[in-house]
Write a structure and sequence with these properties.
This protein is an alpha+beta fold. It has 3 domains: about 110 residues, Orthogonal Bundle (Butyryl-Coa Dehydrogenase, subunit A, domain 1); about 110 residues, Butyryl-CoA Dehydrogenase, subunit A, domain 2; about 130 residues, Butyryl-CoA Dehydrogenase, subunit A, domain 3, CATH 1.20.140.10. The chain is built from 11 helices and 8 strands. Strands 1-4-5-8 form a 4-stranded mixed sheet, with helices on one face. A 4-stranded antiparallel sheet has the order 2-3-7-6, with no helix packed on it.
């Protein structure tokens, strides 16, 4: 049986200066009224904020300088990520491109795609979405039915993707499709393509969540042409590339800090003299957050060494999003306040209302609990 280890690497010494510089940038932006701290900042779309963050050097920081990056480590990027989340910065425009699409292009993209797209991402001016999940297939990613057929100079994509965050804003999607028939091994014959959202043959249909917010979409492709050099990696490499990509998606602090603002407001609400129950429950949440941070930093260190910690990332995502689902339930028990958007000045009530409406999605996006637990069991040698 395999045992997981989450040895936390020491953050580089210069991350302290990076953290201070970012805090000063965020304070300046907030004090100037250029953004208001959001309850779920990494899905909050603000193109102007992303452009300013790019200009200040906080996007694509691990990439080579020739592509607009700063040649820093994944641990430096971790510091930027957690500070953005803790301060409620509206990162949704650049989030996916910076977190996973850019690294995929850097590793597997053609020279033209790298030079065309990476500088724009680093500048906070080029946005990406993820085309993985499909209608009627649940979380079984290997059951992809969208197809790409070879044609002169490229490929024609037909099919549909669903739950695609910010597809209505994205300039590009990285789409997983079948380029060959699936056999007994359904992981064979899958390929990823970079799709320009301005291409003919694409229809984007909105899906509103419980909070009435248009974040999710269904994206339909009908004979959508993509050129040969828009393929990521080689034909048939899609499954191995997706699993590596999911290590970026599932392991970061966004998987346990989505409702950080509610946790902060809860601490303020119980005040300096909490009762015994409040002390125990809030203390337990803080301890869980600290443990999750260590696990997440550890994966950043593994990524920096070139490893593919897909199973460890699945564990962080499963435990982290369960933690996120727990915070609003604990908050409701400890503070008898009606969640509402209509109580001016009551930040706790507003944060609670927002998180309660969004929390059901936390354990779905990026892989459901059932899928993640299956991955973890296999990683432990239990199935």
């Amino acid at each position: 049986m395999r045992a997981f280890r989450f040895d936390a690497p020491e953050l580089p010494a210069d991350t302290t200066a990076l953290r201070q510089r970012l805090r000063a940038f965020l304070a300046e932006q907030r004090d100037a009224g250029l953004y208001k701290p959001n309850r779920n900042s990494w899905i909050s779309f603000n193109a102007e904020f992303s452009r300013r963050a790019g200009k200040a050097g906080f996007i694509g920081i691990t990439w080579p300088k020739e592509f607009g990056g700063h040649a820093l480590s994944n641990l430096h990027r971790y510091v930027v990520t957690e500070e953005m989340l803790a301060h409620g910065a509206p990162c949704g425009a650049h989030w996916i491109a910076d977190r996973q699409s850019g690294p995929q292009i850097l590793r597997h993209g053609s020279d033209r795609m790298k030079r065309l797209l990476l500088p724009g991402i680093a500048a906070g001016e080029c946005y990406f979405g993820i085309g993985m999940s499909e209608p009627d297939t649940g979380s079984d990613l290997a059951s992809v039915r969208s197809r790409a057929a070879k044609t002169e100079g490229g490929w024609l994509i037909n099919g549909a993707k669903i739950w695609t965050s910010n597809a209505h804003h994205a300039h590009y999607l990285i789409v997983l499709v079948r380029t060959a028939q699936a056999g007994e091994n359904r992981h064979i014959g899958l390929t990823q393509f970079i799709v320009d959202m301005q291409s003919p043959g694409i229809t984007v249909r909105p899906i509103r969540n419980l909070a009435g917010v248009h974040e999710f979409n269904e994206v339909v492709f009908r004979d959508c042409f993509v050129p040969d050099d828009a393929m990521l990696g080689a034909e048939g490499m899609g499954w191995s590339m997706v699993t590596a990509e999911l290590a970026f998606e599932r392991s970061g602090p966004d998987r346990f800090l989505s409702d950080y603002r509610l946790l902060a407001e809860l601490i303020h609400k119980v005040g300096a003299r909490p009762d015994a129950r409040q002390s125990v429950e809030v203390g337990r949440l803080i301890a869980h957050a600290a443990a999750l941070r260590r696990m997440s930093v550890s994966i950043a260190g593994l990524l920096e060494k070139g490893h593919n910690p897909a199973t460890e990332a699945a564990l962080v995502k499963e435990v982290g999003t369960s933690f996120e689902r727990e915070i609003p339930e604990v908050a409701r028990k400890l503070v008898p306040v009606e969640p509402s958007f209509d109580e001016p000045g009551d930040d706790f009530s507003e944060a609670l209302a927002y998180v309660l409406l969004n929390a059901p999605s936390f354990t779905l996006r990026g892989g459901t609990r059932e899928i993640l637990r299956g991955m973890i069991a296999r990683g432990l040698g239990l199935r």
